[in-house]
Amino acid sequence: MKDFIKINPADNVAVAINPLAKGTVVTVGADGDITLVCDIPAGHKFALRDLAEGENVIKYGFPIGHTRHAVAKGAFLDHNDIKTNLAGQLDYSDIAIKDAHPAAPGSALKGDEATFQGYERADGQVGIRNEIWVIPTVGCVNGIVKQIVDRVNAETGAEGVDGIFGFPHNYGCSQLGDDHENTKKILRDMVHHPNAGGILVVGLGCENNQPKVFEEFCGDYDRERVKFMVCQEVEGDEVEYGVKVLTELYNNARNCVRTTQPASKLRIGLKCGGSDGFSGITANPLLGEFSDWLCDIEGGTTVLTEVPEMFGAETILMERCSSDALLGSTISLINNFKEYFLSHGEPVGENPSPGNKAGGISTLEEKALGCTQKSGKSPVFGVLEYGERIHNHGLNLLSAPGNDLVASTALAAAGCQMVLFTTGRGTPFGTFVPTMKISTNSGLAARKPTWIDFNAGVLVEDKEMKAVVADFIAYVLRVASGEQVNSEKSGIHEIAIFKNGVTL
After folding, report:
1. By C-alpha distance, which of 114, 27, 13 is closest to 59?
2. Rounded CA gap, 304 and 277, in Å?
3. Per the structure, how many domains does the chain have?
């Protein structure tokens, strides 16, 4: 196993894979022998040559910011030493797409198509779980939803389905404008999601998100699979009524069976950017290889989000757009989110969290260059607004913030049956679809076996990418066929809705 890695020949920094002590002499290819003048923690950077004040720091072959002061060869660099180059909005007029006629998703398939065992719904969508969901239209009925779910779970044990869950949230009333629309869109998207075999939508009756209006907003839906209940309109005990309706939905869902489905039916969310210095070396490149396999070879779909974590690497995605129209949409995606920051008086380039910095991430550009690797090399075939559902196969970009639960909820709402979440620090959370945790380093996988589902850290431990990708694909297909990830085993199923405006 190597003690360090120089990611790109153009880089003027290298990354320590193991902790390196001051005074250690390392030999870095054409850069020759370098004596470390500081201790270098694992995942962090050291200079391959003397860097002048204001000089660009190059990692992944791109600038990740500039030095705040002169840096000596062999010295440690972190956020105290590097300042972002990011500013406000750009016009990107010099950006051109590389291929206006890319091969369609699935064109690279040679031989048999990969398959999984899924639940085909009446609308042609395929779910990877057969769960029962109770969705409140407004936070006022969260307590009622809990009582209904608890009763039906106690009476049935959820036997014959993959679980019975309620999804409390704080919204649905006292909201205006975009906030109100965002709530409606996310809840509507859940109504149409194929991972549920039965859905009970519970409203109060007087909320902004009027139940009857919301039902119309949902459009055409499977009336055998989805039922609505308005508590203020129920004569008598609304919990008893809700238990009756939910039990009927449960009994119907028990008849659903898994059948063999092509991998092209999979829609997979790609989540988390560069949580530590290993993210862009192990877990995110692994997801990039997976995304290329699913999109290019199998004709499936992946969705990349966390727009603020694209800042600084967005041109890589823009150049891969499959049309000028999508390039325009991607430019709007980026600049609209920058305007969101600027309108609140916040800078666009101060994203790395304390955990990111502790793990070796110094600037947003560095985080973004790690983030975009999850998208592989595939063309971009779709750009989605927040709350919009997938309508194109292949790689899609989705507007959502970097917040883990908000972004993962948005991915699931877009129609993703599963979210792949890379992490170098660890997290237990899960959204309303299976949320798989892929660790960037083996230490985390060893410390948190009840959080981490797959260890990508082996990629810096002399494991070849080809073999790890094959193992990962096989694991994803097993999860799609019913194998639970750790967040499911822990009973963690949550949603979070993006909020940006006034609460009345």
Report:
1. 13
2. 20
3. 3
Asked whether the beta carbons of 131 and 162 are under 8 A apart, the reply is: yes
Q: Helices 404-413 & 177-191, crossing angle to 10 degrees?
A: 50
CA distance 309 to 305: 8
Q: SS3 helix, strand, coil % of the chain, rounded to 5?
A: 35, 20, 45
- DSSP 8-state assignment for residue 419: E
Q: What is the pTM of this model?
A: 0.96
Q: Are strands 62-67 and 435-439 parallel, antiparallel or unpaired?
A: unpaired
Q: How confident is the model at residue 351 (pLDDT cuts 50, 70, 90)?
A: low
Residue 227: count of CB within 10 angstroms of its CB = 16
For β-strands 454-455 and 4-5, DSSP reports them as unpaired
For the beta sheet containing 62-67, the strands, ordered from the edge strand earlier in sequence to the opposite edge, are 56-59, 62-67, 82-83
Lowest mean per-residue pLDDT among 222-226, 447-451, 459-463: 459-463
| Residue 47: domain span | 4-83
Looking at residue 180, which CATH number applies to its domain? Answer: 3.40.50
* Residue-wise pLDDT tens digits, 455-491: 999 999 989 999 999 999 999 999 999 999 999 999 9
Same domain, 291 and 395: yes
Contacts (Cβ under 8 Å, ≥6 apart) of 347: 86, 341
Please give, one letter per residue, the 3-state secondary structure of 467-487: HHHHHHHHHHHHHHCCCCCHH
Residue after which a domain boundary falls, among 204, 226, 257: 257
Q: What does the block give as tokens for 387?
A: 């709350």
Q: What angle do CA 495, 271, 95 make, to 5 degrees?
A: 125
Give the closest residue to 301 by CA, choosing from 315, 310, 290.
290
Please identify, among 257, 284, 300, the residue that sits at the C-terminal boundary of a domain: 257
CA dihedral 138, 143, 147, 153 (to 10 degrees): 70
CA 238-240-246 angle, to 5 degrees, is 95
13 has a pLDDT exceeding 70: yes
Which of 130-134, 145-149, 461-465 has the lowest average pLDDT?
461-465
Cα distances (Å, whole numbers) of residue 16 to 1, 31, 84, 91, 469 = 12, 15, 22, 37, 24
pLDDT digits (tens, 9 = 90+) for 356-382: 888 889 998 999 998 899 999 999 999
CA atoms within 13 A on the CB side of 290: 32
